[in-house]
Structure formats: C-alpha cells, structure tokens
Amino acid sequence: MSFNCQIEAVAFCRTPYKQKFGIPRQPGLVGAARGFVELQAPYNHIDAVRGLEQYSHLWLLFSFHENLSQGWKTTVRPPRLGGNEKLGVFATRSTFRPNGIGQSVVKLHKIHQKKGSVILEISGMDLLDGTPIIDIKPYIPFSDSQPDASGGIAHEAPHLIDVAFTQEAREQLEAYSKLEQYPRLEELITGVLAQDPRPAYKKSKADPKLYQVALFDLDILWHVIDDRILIHEIKSGVS
Ligand code: SAM
C-alpha cells in the first residue's frame, strides 16, 4: 500500500569506487577507502550536523540508485552461498529490493565546512561514487552493537585471498602513490582485491580471465593464478 512520503537526497557520497564490480559487499571491510558525504541544500548547514562530531561512526541510509530501474526480486542468490541457493529478499542485503534502500555503518573522521558546503569525511564505505544519501544518523554502540547476535549465512567476514603485484605493476603503484589524489593506494587496492570480487561460479574452477577494477580514475588489471590475485597493470583510465 502506498503512503504519502517524498524522499529526496540529503547528500551525495564521493568514493573511490567508480563501478559496482569490486566494491566490498559490506562496510568496514576496506578501511583504507576514504570518501566524502557532501550535504545538499537546504541541508548543507553546519547546524544540521551540530553534535555529530562526538560520534566515531555513522549510519548512512542510501539509495541503490544504479539498480532501481531493475526493480526487486522475491528471492535472490547470495554470493556467499556460491550463487546456488535462493533466499528471500528480506533475508538478504540484496541491492534488488522494494524501495531500493541500503544502510551502512561508516567511520566518521572529520566534518569540513567551507564556503556554504558541509562535507563529512568518512571511511570504510561500500558505496558507489555518486550514491544518493537519504539520511544520516549517529551510530549508538550501546544499542546498535549486538555482540550475541547470530549472523545467519554471513556469520563471519569473508575469506581473504592473497594479492601480489608484478614488478611493472609495483613500479606503477609506487609512482601513483606519490600523488595526493590517491591516498593509501596500496592498502586500498589490496584490501579490495583480497575480497576476491569475482562472481561465485568463477571461483570453483580455473579462471584465465583478465579482470579490471576501477578505483579513483585508475584501472587495475589482474587475474587469478594459483589461488592468489596477481596485479598486472595500474593505469590511468576511468574518467
Ligand atoms: N551495506 C549495505 C546494506 O546492507 O544495505 C549495502 C550492501 S550491498 C550487498 C553492497 C553492494 O551494493 C556493493 O558491493 C555494490 O556492488 C552495491 N552498491 C553500492 N552502491 C550502490 C548504488 N548506489 N547502486 C547500486 N548498487 C550499489
């Protein structure tokens, strides 16, 4: 049943994640990912975030805006189950859900205020660059943290895979790391790839494919060999 509710973006999120492929599947998995929540008028007033600096973490409620046109599905195949088993949409964190709303806890580093703009500096997000934020709330440990909770199919953090660089990629990494616009680049690349972003069905057999992940405006080219990820090339590419 519909009800009268108009939702608009209060902010937009700027992140190093320029495409969905490679984004961690939950927040907090790649702490080296720094981003910014840019408040939009009429919410871009410092009074709207007065007191927020006392909190170390935030809840971001957001729209899975890139998937909205594809609607929702009653059941989904979570990657954790190898893509073989179906669960109900409300038993998962699927992005294909009624209303397309996501929520993530992120670390708050600083609140910047300059020339009519209010920007929250955050890290650890699992959001695509440009994601519309529909609400921001402080994370309250005494009630939001439930140490005794059972985590269903997602009881533990995902298994990590080793990540290595070819000599050429290592030299490219060192050159890009000197530039201010790529903060904590090595940690970001290894943190993202250690999650092994490939679809589940690719992980069970030999996989010669060359993959690409976009971070900032860089293309990272890699493939899997002997159960580890080898990065071949890091090059400027994404606009
Ligand atoms: N933590 C959130 C939640 O539980 O609601 C998001 C979980 S969802 C499984 C995380 C994935 O959403 C990311 O890996 C990325 O592929 C996708 N994603 C992130 N931002 C998106 C956006 N704006 N539109 C569509 N998909 C997005």
From TrEMBL:
Keywords: Methyltransferase, S-adenosyl-L-methionine, Transferase. GO terms for biological process: methylation. The keyword ATP-binding does not apply. It holds the Pfam family TrmO_C. It comes from the Bacteria. InterPro entries: TrmO-like_N (IPR023370), TrmO_C (IPR041369), UPF0066_cons_site (IPR023368), YaeB-like (IPR040372), YaeB-like_sf (IPR036413), YaeB_N_sf (IPR036414). One of its GO terms (molecular function) is tRNA (L-threonylcarbamoyladenosine(37)-C2) methyltransferase activity. CDD domains: UPF0066 (cd09281). Residues 7-148 form the TsaA-like domain. Belongs to the tRNA methyltransferase O family. This is tRNA (N6-threonylcarbamoyladenosine(37)-N6)-methyltransferase TrmO. It comes from Shewanella atlantica.
